[in-house]
Amino acid sequence: MLTTIATYTFPYEAQIAKAKLDSEGIPAFIADELTINMQWLYSNAMGGVRLQVLDDYAQQAIAVLSVDSSDVLEREQGGDDSPCSACGSTDVEPYQIGKRWAFLVFIGLDFPLFPVKNTVRCRQCGHVEKI
Ligand SMILES: [Zn+2]
User: Fold this and answer.
1) What is the pTM of this model?
2) What is the tens place of the pLDDT at every residue in 14-41?
3) How far is the CA of 68 from the centre of ligand 1 (A)?
């Protein structure tokens, strides 16, 4: 039996979640994807894209998504000049989280949004600033 563990407005969101579950060894399935891709503007009215897993994986899958989804899905812009909060150094560089997911997700998908999160990484201690 398949259980729906999440519903997304846009297909790319479901693809991101599916890629994360795949990377954890959890087989996941996207329902209604073809319909939504053809008419994604209407996905709200249609109830969105459903992400489904086998019953046995449901709790594990929900845990995986609840841990990581904010990092991957949030799209934020931050300044680059604030000092490292770990060591105080201002020798920091822009750093992006999410490109790997974007790469996985957009193979074969014609969709313009990239869920890349901009952060800052300290060159002195390697600390990654969550902006
Ligand atoms: Zn530092």
Assistant:
1) 0.45
2) 889 999 999 999 999 988 655 545 555 5
3) 23
